[in-house]
Design brief:
Elements: H1 8-13, E1 21-24, E2 28-32, E3 42-46, H2 58-78, E4 85-87, E5 103-106, H3 123-136
Antiparallel strand pairs: 1-2, 2-3, 3-5, 4-5
Helix pairs in contact: 2-3
The structure holds guanosine-5'-monophosphate.
């Protein structure tokens, strides 16, 4: 799929837009979702320009999942987490709204979810949660 390098996450990766980051290395970035579906909702993205999981190089996918696991462990340690939903939407038909592959880590239950990216979170409160996750990494 053709990659739009002006998508929001590409702009965050180039530091053209702000994000509350929790982890970054040369291949992956993890940051807080701006419209969290639960407290601590975090996104993990590979830095390479892939639209969906299907476009992502398998080795990069494998490395991204390692980081997803690392962030999930930090979330479990830092927050009052009972369970974590790992969500990955591939394609607009699946509900994907940002065309850069990303993994959602949502401390919630599948039975609680449904409102996808509809309400802005309190960014100061999100920053506090991000600091806790960072400290647990
Ligand atoms: P998708 O629908 O593509 O699976 O998820 C996109 C996610 O990105 C949504 O949960 C939405 O809240 C989040 N999002 C959209 N724009 C921004 C932004 O500018 N910054 C951050 N941090 N998250 C965003």
């Amino acid at each position: 799929m053709t990659y739009d390098d002006q998508n929001i996450f590409a702009r965050i990766l180039r530091n053209e837009l702000p994000a509350i980051k929790v982890y970054e290395d040369d291949q992956v970035l993890a940051f807080m979702d701006i419209m969290p579906q639960a407290e601590g909702h975090t996104l993990v993205i590979p830095k390479s320009p892939a639209v969906t999981l299907l476009d992502l190089d398998p080795q990069e996918a494998a490395y991204t999942i390692q980081v997803v696991q690392k962030i999930a462990k930090a979330m479990e340690k830092a927050l009052d987490v009972k369970g974590i939903v790992l969500m990955q939407l591939s394609g607009a038909a699946a509900g994907q709204t940002v065309p850069h592959v990303h993994f959602h880590l949502i401390p919630s239950s599948v039975h609680e979810l449904g409102k996808h990216g509809v309400q802005m979170g309190d960014q100061d409160q999100i920053k506090v949660l991000a600091d806790k996750i960072k400290a647990a990494l």
